[in-house]
Amino acid sequence: METYLLETKQLTKVYRNNGSKVHALQEVDLAVKPGEMVAVMGPSGCGKSTLLHILGGLDNPTSGEVHINGQRLDKMSEAQRAVLRRKQVGFMFQAFNLIGNLSVGDNIELPALVAGLSVRQARKRRDALLEDLGISDKSRNIPAQLSGGERQRVALARALVNQPTILLADEPTGNLDSKTAYEVLRLLRQTHMQGQTILIVTNDPNVASLAQRVVFMRDGRIINETILQERDDTKTLLVELLNLEGG
Amino acid sequence: MKNLFLALLARQPTHGYELMQMYEGMFSTVLPTLNAGQIYTTLSRMERDGLVRKSTIVQAHRPDKRVYALTEKGGEVLQAWFNEVLTGPRIKDNFYLKLMGAGLSGTVDPSQLIKNQRREYLQTLHNLNTLSLEPEMTENPSKLVLIQGAMLHLKADLEWLDLCEEMFNEGAR
Questions:
Q1: Which end of chain A has the least Cβ crowding within 10 Å, N or C?
Q2: Which DSSP string corresponds to B29-72?
Q3: What distance in Å separates the CA atoms of residue A95 and residue B64, rounded to the nearest whole number?
Q4: Please, which residues bridge with residue B56 across strands?
Q5: Nearest to A205 among B131, B143, B158 (CB)
Q6: Beta strands across the sheet bearing A6-17
């Protein structure tokens, strides 16, 4: 039997809205292998963000199972889920969600301290991440002094500081200009290459196409999925594709 | 190829081998490779048409060097190429007719065609995306911008498939 890092079985979420029921998720079966990068793609309102929130322990399913690293997330109390969120899950949001009056270094360090690491350990991880993401010189700045791309770097460092089982990213390039978006994609790929398991929800084909597997959602259901192959030889790719004529 | 050669020669007179090297250096990853024969055939055709002038430099212990220079006519042809605006959108769509055909025939589910096509576009987008993120791209912005252009077109193609799917789904209801 294959071991999954993250697995949902018949995951369903129903909201009640003025007496009528809204099925945000319907019997979703999704499994993510260790080290895999998966993209969940679909239009707004298809349930992909609800899925991400439940996988990250931010929301409760109505029925169905969520297994993360061998634990039943759906059976946990709120307190247990809070611990799981801190230690196993890293979040990256469209709006960065950085704390404005804390320095970059403190923003990254804080979740590690909350999760129970010593100051020394937290600092060590912070410095390693700052170095890795090329923002060591920004450690003392506050987020407002950074560019959009730098802020998303900080958000990524913060998401990774507790060495999470899985990194969950919600439209990580939404609202960014194309140059900054490119930078963020580069970081996500780099992070994945280092072995990090990543689940991205997005409606942007560019972001989704970075993954190894794309899962399509419509109306709360998974309707289809496609596996993307790595091409060994990219040398002739452009010549084949573009069919440019030199005039 | 002719116009690119004119552009390269507009900088300075060059001999054939150098021209080939310049071409290779700039376009080897985006245009088909040229062999020496193709280069000289093109150059002699351009000479015949009065676009370039060839002068031969006799070298004592090596084969003679043939240097090509742009003529006035060559300069005009090049300028005309630059002045000419490309008309119409860059659309080449064979999928539309196939999709309509699928709907008409009743023998195949159009939404299956859309799925297959989406898979193909996403795979190509994945290939380009991977290529665009390779470290060498930071030093090669002219190549990167070409890839990004192709990616934007694929993104539009994918969004258009969504519209097609919606249309068929609504028709089915």
A1: N
A2: TTS----HHHHHHHHHHHHHTTSEEEEEE--SSSPPEEEEEE-H
A3: 66
A4: B66
A5: B158
A6: A20-32, A6-17, A63-68, A71-72
A-chain residues near B131 (CB < 8 A): 234, 237-238
| Cross-chain residue pair A206–B118, CB shorter than 8 Å | no
Each residue's pLDDT tens digit, B156-172: 999 999 999 988 888 76
Considering only CB atoms, A239 lies closest to which of B3, B31, B123, namely: B31
Nearest CB to B131 within list A178, A205, A234: A234
C-beta separation of A156 from A187 below 8 A: yes
Which pLDDT tens digit goes with each residue over B62-111?
878 889 999 999 999 999 999 998 877 766 678 999 999 998 898 999 99
Q: For residues A159 and A161, what is the distance between their CA atoms, to the nearest angstrom?
A: 6
Tens-digit pLDDT profile for residues A166-193: 999 999 988 788 888 898 899 899 999 9
Report the number of distinct structural domains present in chain A: 1
Q: Find chain B residues with C-beta within 8 A of A209's C-beta.
A: 122, 125-126, 129
Please give the Cα distance from A162 to A159 (Å, whole number).
Answer: 7
Q: Is residue A211 part of a domain?
A: yes
Q: Are B128 and A205 a contacting pair at CB < 8 A?
A: no
Q: Which residue of A has its CA nearest to B165?
A: A218
The amino acid sitting at A109 is E
CATH number of the domain bearing residue A157: 3.40.50.300
- Point out the residues of chain A with pLDDT beneath 70: 1-2, 235, 242-247
Measured between CA atoms, the residue of chain B closest to residue A223 is B115
Determine the pLDDT at residue A246. Answer: 47
> Which residues 6+ apart lie within 8 Å of A231 measured at CB?
A237, B127, B130
Contact (CB<8Å) B126/A226:
no
From A85's Cα to the closest Cα of chain B, the distance in A is 31
Architecture category of domain B2-83 in CATH: Orthogonal Bundle (1.10)
Domain of residue A67: give its range. 6-242
How far, rounded to the nearest angstrom, does the alpha carbon of residue A83 sit from its chain's CA centroid? 18
